[in-house]
Amino acid sequence: MLRREFLAVRNRLTADDVREAAGALAARALELPELARARTVAAYVSVGSEPGTLALLDALCARGVRVLLPALLPDNDLDWGAYSGEGSLARVQRGGKMALFEPTGERLGPDAVAGADVVLLPGLAVDARGMRLGRGGGSYDRVLARLEGAGAHPALVVLLYDSEVVERVPAEAHDRPVHAVVTPSGVRRFRSGA
Length: 194
Fold this sequence. Notes:
Radius of gyration: 15 Å
Distance between the termini: 32 Å
Strand order of the largest sheet: 3-2-1-6-9-10-11
Strand content: 15-25%
Low-confidence stretches: none
Shape: globular
Order of helices and strands: HHHEHEEEEEEEHEEE
Mean pLDDT: 92
Helix content: 25-40%
Structural class: alpha/beta
């Protein structure tokens, strides 16, 4: 039910709202020291009324950062491919799920994310503990478990709208807190973070 509420608010945003927020979000994210020193960033392409990521992805590429983007596998796990601009993306529709933009190039395997210095995570909300509320598909829970299993410790950053930073979201035992949230108005760090 909570997920539906956050999605309903997002769905009321206009295209102009989303575009303005995307520019502000990119500017704030690019100020993060973790992104400034990152050589590889695992990210995602926003869809619909999600906080926009393309401006950020292009800015990272312009800095010479290797950007990895996910490709959804049939079991909801994620494979990864390199991003080299909007021309390297394909719109993919899977069953009744929302259409996603995925990298068109070589697939690097699900473990490629372990080489990232920063992982930018989608979400619907984050709370005061740094716990992220995802869409419920479990794809990023697998990514976080994979990172832990590989002994990888990238900075975990969720990209949200200002209204999606809340006091508390439901969390399960396997959930892992993020280190920071970036919103159009700024950055908030969590104690669990690096």
